[in-house]
Amino acid sequence: MFTRRRFFWSSTAALIASRAPRLSAREPQTPAAPLAPSLAALTSMRTQATPINNAERRLRIEKARRLMAQHKIDALMLTQGTSLVYFTNIRWGGGERLTACVIPATGKPFFVCPAFEEDRAREQIELGPFADATADVRTWNEDESPYALVANGLKDRGVATGTLGIEETTKFVWSDSVAQAAPALKLVSATPIVAGCRMMRSRSCSLIAW
Fold first, then answer.
1. Which CATH number describes the domain made up of 54-207?
2. Angle 150-91-157 (CA atoms, 0-180°, nearest 5)?
3. Which of 103, 129, 144, 150 has the fewest CB atoms found within 10 Å of its own CB?
């Protein structure tokens, strides 16, 4: 309720504000100190930066497979995130539906995605190192289990009772559901694989964000 008292106080506040000294819009700035000669002599390296290509991604995958053998991990599961981009060039937004790339230590990878996303998934795969018209893309509908597809894909590659490395940003519900769908499978962190690859940057990676 707007009372006489409130009117009085609002009027007083407005009067005080109108008579308050205005602050300068811009404070005087101290001139910047000149750069040291060694810094001033530096030149741009922008022209030396080159985009990451699929040949380089294949080298990353080869290294990942060497690390898998070293750590006795039979396959690597990647879901949406920077590691998926790093190895496959697949850029997949967040969501509650599982979309995954599973890279075995030997043999062809396979992909799992919702059925309505298959065309998009294949378009993304064609942009990466696994470009292949016969890429193994396993799709699932709302009344089906994507985790069973992961389990079956691993079984087809002889990893039914092996060890699956899970990339660290994978949602727990996804990794836990894969574990339930493949109880004979051992799930471990894939950090030794992923970090082992990503900690060593190539020349192009050193020059641009990756």
1. 3.40.350.10
2. 25
3. 144
Q: Are strands 136-140 and 110-114 parallel, antiparallel or unpaired?
A: parallel
- pTM of the full predicted structure? 0.74
Q: What stretch of H or E contains 148?
A: helix 146-156
Domain borders along the chain are: 54-207
pLDDT tens per residue, the chain (210 residues)? 556 556 555 665 555 555 555 555 566 677 777 888 888 888 888 777 788 899 999 999 999 999 999 999 999 999 999 999 999 999 998 789 999 999 999 999 999 999 999 999 999 999 999 998 899 999 999 999 999 999 999 999 999 999 999 999 999 999 999 999 999 999 999 999 999 998 765 544 443 334
Residues 6+ apart with CB under 8 A from 146: 97, 98, 100, 112, 113, 114, 140
Q: Is the Cβ–Cβ distance between 210 and 83 less than 8 Å?
A: no
